[in-house]
Amino acid sequence: MFKTRVTEMLGIKYPIICGGMNMLSRAELVAAVSNAGGLGLLASANFETAEQLRQEIRKTKSLTDKPFGCNINMFPSVRPIPNREFIEVICEEGVKAVETSGQRSPEEYVPHLKEGKVIIIHKAATLRHALKGQESGADMIAIVGTENGGATGPEDVSTLVLLPILADAAKVPVIAGGGFADGRGLVAALALGAEGIVMGTRFVATKECPAHPKFKEWMLKSTERDTVVIMRSLQNTHRVLRSKAVEDIQKLEARGARLEELLPLISGAAYRRVFLDGELDAGMNSVGEAVGLVSDVPTVKELIDRIVSQAEAIIGQRLPPMAGLSRR
């Protein structure tokens, strides 16, 4: 029922992708997503060196014989990220796909990835960046709206609007991100022209995700009203859960603080303390509005099976009577 160009090209059962999440997208989560019929993505920026990434790729291979991919982070970073070396390893290890994400085109990496027969998914938060990714040679485009957790782009346009516009303009398959957490979202995305969805926030609240239990508990207590966009002053907008640290970031930005003043709260070290150590007020985090749809912490397989079953029920049971009424 859910055969699309995305599933066919990636060799996966369901058009469901777990986005590459800093600190969290490691072998156990990635393999669980792929084993359940989706596509898991390792976050290469989790690693200091290409050899560390190679070891995580091999660990993932030991946990699944299904396709998986890697994210290449092209956002601004305090520490240098060896993306070229990462891509060398990805090609050498025969990884199925790469998700490039950031505010610039993946053009510089495309020839090497194509030579390595790696499928390129370029993820963007604006139409112009998405289409630039297609122009640069991406095989698929993922578009994320302002609902998205983490990077949202500067334009504050929702996925509901971005998706059909891009689907009309794109020549390659489109994947939708931002606000997706269940079967209703999957059906809606397909109806709007997507051929798959990418989720992050919903996968954080799963048993295989290495996020600290305190963080998962925080998510269960949160609603769709509990997120806010920060870092506009740095032109690097991110949607996060409200916290004492996030309030401090907002105050610093309001008075025109420089990057050096913000770093203790937005750095990778602070991010790690929040997600992995459960120090919820240590710094920023990345959570989307879909947190309002999170009410439990299932296994990845339970979550994906539930999404697919709900989507099948909507298509097979709920929509046909409505379509019949419309023909009267």
Model description:
Helix 3 (50-63) runs parallel beside helix 4 (83-92), helix 8 (183-191) crosses helix 14 (300-326) and helix 11 (244-254) runs antiparallel to helix 12. This protein is 43% helix and 14% strand. Strand 2, helix 3 (50-63) and strand 3 form a beta-alpha-beta unit. It contains 14 helices and 11 strands. The mean pLDDT is 94. With 328 residues, it is α/β, with parallel strands linked by helices.
What is the secondary structure topology, with strand pairs?
Elements: H1 5-10, E1 16-18, H2 27-35, E2 39-43, H3 50-63, E3 68-73, H4 83-92, E4 97-101, H5 110-115, E5 119-124, H6 127-136, E6 140-144, E7 150-151, H7 159-169, E8 174-177, H8 183-191, E9 197-199, H9 201-204, H10 213-221, E10 227-230, E11 238-241, H11 244-254, H12 259-266, H13 268-275, H14 300-326
Helix pairs in contact: 2-3, 3-4, 8-14, 11-12
In short:
By secondary structure, this protein is α/β, with parallel strands linked by helices. It is built from 14 helices and 11 strands. The protein is 43% helix and 14% strand.
Helix content: 40-55%
Number of strands: 11
- Tell me the fraction of residues in β-strands, as a range: 5-15%
- Side by side, the strands of the main sheet go 1-2-3-4-5-6-8-9
**Gross morphology:** globular
* Coarse structural class: alpha/beta
Which consecutive residue ranges, at least 5 long each, have pLDDT under 50?
A: none
Radius of gyration, in Å, reads 19 Å
Q: How widely separated are the two ends?
A: 27 Å
The largest sheet is: 8 strands, parallel, barrel
On the 0-100 scale, what is the average pLDDT?
94
The sequence of SSEs as H and E is: HEHEHEHEHEHEEHEHEHHEEHHHH
Count of helix runs: 14
